[in-house]
Design a protein that fits this description.
This protein has two domains: 109 residues, Glutaredoxin, CATH 3.40.30; 137 residues, Glutathione S-transferase Yfyf (Class Pi), Chain A, domain 2 (Up-down Bundle), CATH 1.20.1050.10. The protein has twelve helices and eight strands. The strands form two sheets. The protein has a four-stranded mixed sheet with strand order 2-1-7-8. Helix 1 runs antiparallel to helix 7. The longest helix is centred in the middle third of the chain and has 26 residues. The chain is globular and about 55 Å long. The chain binds glutathione.
Length: 268
């Protein structure tokens, strides 16, 4: 296979748990990453491109041709170049590019895979093609869960019955599978750490942010979906907490889960 050099360039709003997937894997596998971005409120002032840059108001007037209205999560104007859309046709971030800028990679799990494919020692993407495919199976299931929780998190300010029920059912289905797998292996689906654990950790930590909207949900008559997570899915809960202690995880996510750990200690 043609060698393109080791590494990856990523553009996103930051911090973003979807970017952490690649960051954690890159730390474990020693793959260089260039991460470019800004806080979510500033990302409409950036040129979404293989060579992203911050734009002034004057730049924005000159680049009017690239102005597009956000479709998922953003409802303001975003400046996405034609080259960006050519390489990232769904127009989402995180967006990753090969070092020569010729190949666009989108979907955070695929960006994670792109890092893991550059790992030659840690077997983050399994030890053979069958294990890699089994890893893909878990990642596909995880994407279904994370797509549901994306819509759910967007809707938290104003929850309604059908959105809540969809999330509840996706949560139960996904966590049942993860819990089952942890009955026979130390990690999800395997007896060693893989990108399944990394993807799960980042997506599930993001989902747990529903906890910040407990009052808003209660006002509409709903409980937190993860209310009894530690008791109902004990193995999964323990696994999440175990992963949180691994250095490459904790140095990437910082204090993100601290509020949740505090909440568990003081459930009042
Ligand atoms: N499943 C995707 C989700 C990516 C996504 O939906 N990104 C949104 C922000 S949360 C986006 O880039 N939206 C661009 C827009 O609104 O046009 C992943 O894991 O990368």
């Amino acid at each position: 296979m043609e060698s393109m050099g080791k590494g990856l360039k990523i553009f996103s709003y930051l911090p973003n748990p979807r970017v952490w997937k690649a960051e954690i894997a890159a730390k474990i596998a020693d793959v260089p990453l260039e991460i470019i971005g800004d806080k979510p409120s500033e990302i409409p002032n950036w040129l979404w491109d293989t060579d992203p840059k911050k734009l002034s108001e004057a730049d924005k007037k000159d680049l009017k041709e690239f102005e597009r209205i956000g479709k998922r999560g953003f409802n303001s104007s975003l400046y996405k170049t034609d080259r960006f859309i050519e390489l990232i046709p769904f127009g989402t971030v995180p967006a990753a590019f090969s070092l020569d800028g010729k190949t666009g990679i989108f979907e955070s799990n695929s960006i994670l895979r792109a890092v893991a494919r550059q790992d030659t020692q840690k077997h983050l993407y399994g030890k053979n093609h069958f294990e890699a495919s089994r890893i893909d199976s878990f990642l596909d299931s995880g994407l279904v869960f994370s797509r549901e929780h994306q819509e759910y998190l967007f809707g938290l300010e104003n929850m309604h019955e059908s959105l809540y029920r969809r999330m509840q059912s996706a949560y139960e289905f996904f966590l049942n599978g993860v819990e089952e797998s942890l009955k026979s292996t130390s990690h999800i689906g395997f007896n060693f750490l893989t990108i399944v654990d990394i993807s799960f950790f980042c997506d599930f930590s993001q989902f747990l942010r529903e906890g910040h909207y407990e009052e808003k949900l209660k006002e509409k008559g709903f409980n937190l979906i993860s209310e009894n997570f530690p008791e109902e899915y004990t193995l999964t809960y323990r696994h999440l907490m175990k992963l949180a202690k691994i250095e490459e995880f904790s140095t990437t996510t910082g204090t993100y889960l601290d509020w949740y750990k505090r909440k568990l200690q003081d459930p009042s």
